[in-house]
Amino acid sequence: MRSSQRRKRAGVSRRGSTAPLAGELVPLAAALSRVIAADVIAPIDTPPFDRANVDGFALRAADTLGAGPGTPKRLALNHEVIACGVAPSLEVAPGTATAIATGGVIPRGADAVVMIEHTELIEDAAAPAIDVHRAVTSGQFISYAGSDIARGETLLRRGIEIGSREIGMLAACGLTSVDVVRRPRVAVLSTGDELVQPGQPLRPGGVYDSNGAIIAAAVAEAGGEAVPFGAVADDQSALERAMRAALASCDMVVLSGGTSKGAGDLSHQVVSRLGSPGILVHGVALKPGSRCAYRPSSAAKNLYWFRWSVPTTASSRSRAGKARAR
Fold this sequence. Notes:
single chain, Molybdopterin biosynthesis moea protein, domain 2, Molybdopterin biosynthesis moeA protein, domain 3, Molybdenum Cofactor Biosythetic Enzyme, Chain A, 3 domains, 6-stranded mixed β-sheet, 20 strands
């Protein structure tokens, strides 16, 4: 998803420009697909210590100078094995090396790691030792503290949608919660005397309210919180009451039905009486769905959308178009 599309989930204002809603703190487990409300600053270095990138031996790079297959450099082994999660206790002195696992903490005195494949264990010596068959340079096979994420760095910026990668970054810094933009509450209203709620018996002349379900699903897909207000009969007073109730509790209202020119089409009539600036768009060059209207409300937080279409008609036309394309 493009960054501009991802940022649009943060909120909307009166004239359709993006304007963030209030933030809320959510647990990391519930943060997927949410939008960052404020820049997140890294509280620690990641990694938090200098660590080995390979299994091998921590040593001083200068001790391997000139090492090769025919001219190995012998180093005494320290009596310590540094596994993951173990803090080293011995310093690596000149001429010595310490066994270390991938992810282990680099001990004091060491400035490089040689891969175990480039060494040979010497067991017949008076003390354990290794022969190094390849020279290494200072810093080789070491990830330094803060090389992935530095403490104080801006980890995530406001407006970014949180995906699995962002979840990992937050967890790597030890964060258990994050400040995200509140999901916009979108009221979904259907209108029409003929509408029957799914699951109820279909009366003569009635149709099931599919628009309400499809709009609610589209709101959820876009990152909003759909608030179903059901179907309202073709009655101006009832519709106006329902719309005002929806506006009082939600950030946006989406209506379906009542935008055409018939006597029973009341949605645009009711909305036009709700004050300035009135309906800005009433009809678009699109089929199905040409009978569409748009009105920003006088309150900056709300938008009205009105549409009329039959979802099954749109679906069948889409299938027909695909069939012709074949």
